[in-house]
């Protein structure tokens, strides 16, 4: 299997990619679906091994510039496990499977009872408990920040960051002044993996899965895109009504048990949750509302300046360049996302991170990049959290 990158120069070339996608199985990495293609846009997609020569011929024929980002996907999949931490146990510098993460949630809470507690906010379609960690020193009327990881099953660097964030918080509390202040003054709700069933499936069956594992009535195709399943312009722009598509919006908003559990929890805690952060990959972007409309949020100037400053913080460490802005214009329109939904619930600080990289590895970022990725992202998250603390509403 190969991953190609093309940049169609005009609508004719966009049409070539579209017809390619309708004639064979094409897995779009960026953008999420064929419907979002437009001229001058960077398009990354994966094709099966038996089709890769055909695809190359077609691209050459159409005169389209292209390059092969990943020449042998299987080799890249094997190479992602390059961590020095070769342990069967949990490690913050390698990708952990779900069982290991679940055990870790219990352990980290047991080891840090004055800072961390664990609860279950629901269960997945396949019956797995959705563990939520609450972090912070106990206090009265504390405001909170909600952060989730692992919406899309194949974005493994995302859950790795949620684990890293928790580790850093407990390790630096009492040592790092910013983190100490944050945990004394705020609570953090951390949902390490949203789409647990999908995540498990990427470890056991198909590393490239994006969606949930729920059955769809009247279709043999499995799963919904959980980040198209929220009631925010639901199933309009950039989402599909076809259950076989990777951006399928589901049969109704919150049709997925996972998205409903998350939304229910936030609704129940709306009076205290003042910021919402959701972690995805890849593209190196820091996005804020809206994605379901080109309309700008009412506090656009403020969100834009926070995103600018947070991106600066992030870049300062390893010179990783981030782009920031409203989702619809910074990448492409996409309806039904959790960030837009949270914002429309009245959570005015709502951000989506798209972590490393920009396509060299895409969804199969090697483990050796977990540490630097998490270190730099942490700086941006701490900046945003500190800003929220200073601007409580």
Can you put this structure into words, describing what you see?
The strands form two sheets. The protein has an eight-stranded mixed beta sheet, with helices on both faces. A four-stranded antiparallel beta sheet has the order 2-3-1-4, with helices on one face. The chain has helices at residues 11-23, 52-61, 73-79, 98-111, 157-172, 177-185, 196-204, 257-268, 300-318, 327-330, 338-344, 370-390, and strands spanning 2-6, 26-30, 43-47, 66-70, 116-123, 129-135, 143-149, 186-191, 273-281, 285-288, 323-326, 349-355. Strand 5 and strand 6 (129-135) form a beta hairpin. The longest helix has 21 residues, at 370-390. The protein is α/β, with parallel strands linked by helices and 393 residues long. It is built from twelve helices and twelve strands. It is globular and about 65 Å long. The chain has two domains: 2-79, Alpha-Beta Plaits (2-Layer Sandwich), CATH 3.30.70; 98-210 and 225-390, Zn peptidases (Aminopeptidase), CATH 3.40.630.
Short description:
With 393 residues, this protein is of the alpha/beta class. The chain contains 12 helices and 12 strands.
């Amino acid at each position: 299997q190969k991953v190609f990158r093309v940049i169609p120069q005009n609508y004719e070339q966009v049409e070539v990619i579209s017809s390619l996608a309708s004639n064979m199985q094409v897995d779009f990495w960026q953008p999420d679906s064929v419907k979002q293609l437009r001229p001058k846009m960077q398009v990354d997609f994966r094709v099966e091994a038996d089709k890769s020569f055909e695809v190359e011929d077609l691209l050459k024929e159409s005169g389209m510039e292209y390059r092969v980002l990943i020449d042998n996907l299987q080799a890249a999949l094997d190479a992602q496990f390059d961590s020095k931490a070769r342990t069967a146990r949990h490690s913050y510098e390698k990708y952990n499977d779900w069982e290991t993460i679940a055990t870790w949630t219990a352990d980290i809470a047991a080891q840090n009872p004055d800072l961390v507690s664990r609860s279950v906010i629901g269960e997945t379609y396949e019956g797995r408990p959705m563990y939520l960690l609450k972090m912070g020193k106990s206090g009265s009327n504390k405001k909170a920040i909600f952060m989730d990881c692992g919406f899309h099953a194949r974005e493994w660097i995302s859950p790795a960051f949620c684990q890293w964030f928790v580790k850093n918080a407990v390790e630096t509390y009492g040592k790092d002044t910013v983190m100490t202040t944050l945990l004394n003054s705020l609570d953090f709700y951390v949902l390490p993996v949203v789409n647990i069933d999908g995540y498990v499936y990427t470890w056991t069956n198909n590393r490239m899965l994006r969606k949930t594992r729920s059955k769809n009535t009247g279709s043999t195709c499995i799963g919904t895109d959980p980040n198209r399943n929220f009631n925010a312009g639901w199933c309009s722009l950039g989402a599909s009504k076809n259950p076989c598509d990777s951006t399928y919006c589901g049969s109704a908003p919150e049709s997925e048990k996972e998205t409903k559990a998350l939304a229910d929890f936030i609704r129940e805690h709306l009076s205290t949750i003042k910021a919402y952060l959701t972690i995805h990959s890849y593209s190196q972007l820091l996005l804020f509302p809206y994605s379901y409309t080109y309309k700008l949020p009412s506090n656009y100037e403020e969100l834009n300046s926070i995103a600018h400053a947070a991106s600066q913080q992030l870049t300062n460490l390893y010179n990783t360049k981030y782009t920031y802005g409203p989702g619809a214009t910074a990448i492409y329109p996409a309806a039904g996302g959790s960030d837009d939904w949270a914002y429309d619930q009245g959570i005015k600080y709502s951000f989506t991170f798209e972590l490393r990289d920009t396509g060299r590895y895409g969804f199969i970022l090697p483990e050796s990049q977990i540490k630097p990725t998490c270190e730099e992202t942490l700086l941006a998250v701490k900046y945003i959290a500190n800003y929220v603390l200073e601007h409580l509403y």
